Amino acid sequence: MNKTTLDKMAFFFLGLNSRYNENREIFIEIEVRFKAGLKSFKGIGILNEEETLSYNYNGVTRLLPFDDVLEDIKKEAVHYDSLILTYKERGTKLLIEASAKGVSMNTEALKYETTKEEKETSTLLTRDYLIKSKEAAPLLKAIGIMSKDGKVKNDKIRKYNQIDHYVELLSKNFETLKKQETIHIMDVGCGKSYLSFVLNYYLTEVLRMKCHFIGIDISEEVIETSRKIQKELGYRNMEFHAMDVKDFKDSRKIDVVLSLHACDTATDMALSYGVYKEADFIVAVPCCHKEMLKTYSYEPFEGIMKHGILKARLADTLTDGLRGLLLESHGYEVSIVEYISPLETPKNLMIRAMKKCNSNEKAEKEASALIKALQIYPAFNYYLDQYTYGTGEGFGDFT
What is the spatial distance between Cα 161 and Cα 127, in angstroms, rounded to a whole number? Predict the structure, then answer.
């Protein structure tokens, strides 16, 4: 290649190096094909655990920083007629073509290539999916929704529908958070983190948002499972910690807090943590409700609450309603919606809260009046006191 082409290519490589440094967490690989007449020579670089690239060219593999790989490519390009460089990151690939005619650059969607062994997925999938089975096949296989041959498992179709609807319910909220810097998302009581993996895929590869997930769970076993899935998928924009969320110390701004199917007051632990961290967006799908059932009383309803089943159902409603009020009192705009059909599970509510202001005096008065009337001390307030002051008042540890 001539000097003019090489100089232009060097200019493009400056931009590519900046992109790599900015998007390192979602980088996949860099591939170059040199051409001289009818001959073609290939080089490929893959990020390794030492955060350098394992760059294989001409039968030799070297460990090089990304900018050194680009320098190596520029030096080799002198000896060839043309080259095509493919830079891959999650959801996107960038092509740089250089020859005597000049240098061009194009960006394309990175598509998942199916193999001959992979089959068409079930015809029972009738939704217009946000998490499309073909494009998201590696993700769906890793979390057990799809078989190795590329077919959504029949006994996982309902689960697939649930996770896709989950993303649908949150997609507009996340789009309002779209910004230049990385959005930090904490999954409290993450378990095996399946929904965080799904959200990671959607935000990164569909919405093209920069995000970083932090999974917290007290179980070493489930955290280890999450780490294995993370490694399989190559999702470097995730980290997992086996610990209590109150012991997590980090200076990063937490933009989003998630809590999915956290039992009883573990939901309050997550909600109050989101408030404490002044998260922009908080999402909770509560599971079992036990705290208020054991402690609340309300004289006008005594005739109703003598029936245990009615007292339990009323406690569920009051618990989630009070959670919504408490979030509103701290300046959040709250919506409580059905997450999935009640035919699948009665524990089907999703609480969504977007930060709008510092406080809401009206909601604070309503929450205080309800707490007084029910003669309770909510776990939400208890945990918020713990996070804020290091102590909690009331009925002791709710965990």
Answer: 8
Instruction: Strand 349-355: give its sheet, edge to edge.
Output: 238-242, 211-217, 183-188, 256-260, 281-285, 349-355, 332-338
Dihedral sign from CA coordinates of 245, 188, 279, 326: negative
The token duo for 146 is: 């799809």
DSSP strands (E only) in 125-210: 183-188
Residue with token string 């029949």: 154
Q: Is the pTM of this model over 0.90?
A: no
Count of H-run helices and E-run strands, the chain: 12, 14
3-state secondary structure of 187: strand
**Model pLDDT, residue 398:** 40
89: left (phi over 0), alpha (psi -120 to 50) or beta: beta
Which residues is 42 bridged to in the sheet? 33
CB of 227 closer than 8 Å to CB of 240: yes
Strand runs labelled E in 330-398:
332-338, 349-355
Burial class (CB in 10 A: 0-12, 13-18, 19+), 226: buried
CA 116/CA 85 separation, integer angstroms: 27
Direct distance between the N- and C-terminal alpha carbons of the chain, in angstroms, rounded to an integer: 68
- Which two tokens mark 262? 């956290």
Biggest CA-to-CA distance, the chain? 91
Is the Cβ–Cβ distance between 197 and 233 less than 8 Å?
yes
State the DSSP string of 236-260: -SEEEEES-GGG----S---EEEEE
- Asked if 281 and 335 touch (Cβ cutoff 8 Å), the reply is no
Residues 142, 233: Cα–Cα separation, whole Å: 7
Domain segments of the chain as ranges: 3-109, 137-389
Tokens found for residue 295: 């402690």
Q: What is 137-389's CATH superfamily?
A: Vaccinia Virus protein VP39 (3.40.50.150)
Scan for tokens 């997609």, then name that residue: 171
- Are 380 and 386 spatial neighbours (Cβ–Cβ below 8 Å)? no
For residue 228, the number of C-alpha atoms closer than 13 Å in the C-beta half-sphere is: 10
The span from the CA of 185 to the CA of 170, in Å, is: 13
pLDDT recorded at residue 253: 92
For 257-284, write each residue's pLDDT tens digit: 999 877 778 899 999 999 999 999 999 9
What is the β-pairing status of strands 332-338 and 349-355?
Answer: antiparallel
